[in-house]
């Protein structure tokens, strides 16, 4: 299976974030999965790619052409696909993968996660979406989403469209056991539940 990973490109994080991202890459490759990612050399995306590379796995990088500068893109991709825009990049990352893992990240990662969650809510995708909550990073966002449901700005059913886990192994276990739900828009927009 091709698994898309979103995550930070920052080089200023605590070491535990890079270690867990690299471990995820190792586990992903060991299980026979391929990595689809934004092609970056640095940050958590680069760490995940290094983990996949270490285990001899397949790495599909997708990046806009303007990122093709020295030191920006990961040099050991099995396949590198260039796009003209960031929007095209996101579309191809979705099309070339069957599941999504969200690592800790900033506003770009949030945007990617929320777009996938919205597509799933609307019945446009039925892929597994799993968030790796390294060091408790995503607990505030998860509480915000619970609050959003409690105050009826979204259905409680939306909270079932993704899974929050603590470790890379739990993320892969979730994906490997995932059964698509094929939820309807009507069911997901029922705010009385």
The poorly predicted ranges are 184-193
Number of helical regions: 7
What percent of residues adopt helix (DSSP H or I)?
40-55%
Shape verdict:
globular
Q: What value does the Rg take, in angstroms? A: 16 Å
As a percent range, the share of strand residues is 15-25%
Major sheet? 7 strands, parallel
Structure class: alpha/beta
Mean pLDDT: 93
Order of helices and strands: EHEHEEHEHEHEHH
Span of the ends, CA to CA: 34 Å
* Annotation, overall tally of beta strands: 7
- Write out the strand line-up for the largest beta sheet, numbering strands in chain order: 4-3-2-1-5-6-7
SSE layout:
Elements lengths: L1 E5 L8 H16 L3 E4 L5 H12 L4 E6 L14 E5 L2 H10 L3 E4 L4 H15 L6 E5 L6 H12 L12 E3 L2 H10 L7 H4 L5
Parallel strand pairs: 1-2, 1-5, 2-3, 3-4, 5-6, 6-7
Helix pairs in contact: 1-2, 1-6
């Amino acid at each position: 299976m091709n698994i898309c990973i979103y995550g930070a490109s920052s080089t200023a994080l605590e070491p535990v974030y890079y270690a867990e991202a690299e471990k995820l890459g190792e586990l992903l490759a060991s299980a026979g999965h391929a990595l689809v990612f934004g092609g970056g050399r640095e940050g958590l995306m680069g760490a995940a790619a290094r983990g996949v590379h270490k285990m001899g796995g397949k790495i599909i990088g997708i990046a806009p052409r303007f990122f093709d500068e020295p030191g920006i893109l990961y040099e050991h991709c099995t396949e590198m696909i260039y796009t003209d825009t960031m929007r095209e990049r996101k579309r191809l990352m979705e099309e070339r993968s069957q599941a999504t893992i969200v690592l800790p990240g900033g506003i770009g990662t949030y945007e990617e996660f929320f777009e996938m969650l919205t597509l799933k809510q609307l019945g446009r995708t039925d892929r597994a979406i799993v968030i790796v909550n390294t060091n408790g990073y995503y607990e505030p966002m998860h509480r915000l989403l619970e609050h959003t449901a409690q105050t009826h700005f979204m259905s409680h059913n939306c909270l079932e469209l993704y899974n929050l886990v603590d470790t890379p192994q739990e993320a892969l276990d979730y994906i490997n056991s995932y059964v698509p739900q094929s939820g309807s828009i009507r069911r997901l927009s029922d705010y009385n539940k």
